[in-house]
Amino acid sequence: MRLLILKLVSDEARHGYDLIREIEARTGGAYVPSPGVIYPALEALLDQGLVEVQPDGQKRSFSLTDDGRNEMVAEAEALDRIEARLAELQDSERPEDPEDVREAMLRLRHSVIQSLRANHADVDRRKAITDILSDAQDRISKLDDV
């Protein structure tokens, strides 16, 4: 995660939320880091002097320092492996991971998160979402029985 964040902020200064969305996009939705992963990682990189922060309104924007650039040079092989793995995750030509299904899963995931965040304390809403997801899981599992 550390090297991936360095790579992303080397491309352009980014906010924590931007990093979350970019990692989601680069993994084809296979991984969406939580703020509880991103922000501590950014703080560690700040402490190490590898990134710097600039206030950007109410947000903080992170960019690479000279030490961060040196770290990327030193870890070039590891970064190449990370980039290759991300490219594999983006590969929608694989028959076991068709793009249309992957996009539908992403849309579903976003809908669930959006609905939960709209009123996270609503127990009835959470139960309805859980029931819908369980029903979808059951229906998909039964496709294998055909």
Automatic annotation (TrEMBL):
Domain of life of the source: Bacteria
InterPro entries attached to this UniProt entry: Tscrpt_reg_PadR_N, WH-like_DNA-bd_sf, WH_DNA-bd_sf
Domain Transcription regulator PadR N-terminal: start-end pairs: 5-72
Pfam families according to UniProt: PadR (PF03551)
UniProt cross-references to PANTHER family, sorted A to Z: TRANSCRIPTION REGULATOR, PADR-LIKE FAMILY, TRANSCRIPTIONAL REGULATOR YQJI
Name recorded for this polypeptide: Transcription regulator PadR N-terminal domain-containing protein
Species of origin: Hyphomonas beringensis
